[in-house]
Amino acid sequence: xxxxxxxxxxxxxxxxxxxxxxxxxxxxRRLAALKVLVEPGAVPAVAPPPTTTSERCAxxxxxxxxxxxxxxxxxxxxxxxxxxxxxxxxxIRAVIRHESAYDPNAVSHKGAMGLMQLMPATARRLGxxxxxxxxxxxxxxxxxxxxLHDRLGSWPRAVxxxxxxxxxxxxxxxxxxxxxxxxxxxxxxxxxxxxxxx
Length: 198
Fold this sequence. Notes:
Elements: H1 2-17, H2 25-38, H3 53-58, H4 70-85, H5 89-100, H6 120-126, H7 134-152, H8 155-164, H9 166-170, H10 176-189
Helix pairs in contact: 1-2, 4-7, 5-10, 7-8, 8-10
């Protein structure tokens, strides 16, 4: 009884003062939980986390606020993609580093999206519904890297195809900016490596 009175007093004080406009989500959750304890039958006014892909995509960078953490989610996605598509996880990380600097909300001036900078048409072909979802983006980008490797015959050529398109690599019309990009990715992946593009 005494504990319930203390909780009630705390709740009354909190609601009397009012939560500041900038209060974080954690404060709102704690106040809702306190209300449930003080007023049996009350329903917490905290929205459930998004569950469908469209909800997740529409809600913006929801993964930044999860307790699990953004970098941990990216690392988990890289591990899963590496195992699923037989691509070295360090190569996946090197591509992410040079494509988006690990920013899941990155958008290039050409419209490439997310961690591995998937173009909208490429994302659709890969079955990626939300290119800003770190897991979907990494799985899609890694699947594309594997396809390029199988088509072009080596990882440096696959990385070049990822940047400039496989048609240019096959026609041996690799732009200078792509050659520079490949060198940077390969150095991040395997320091001291010399990419063989031709």
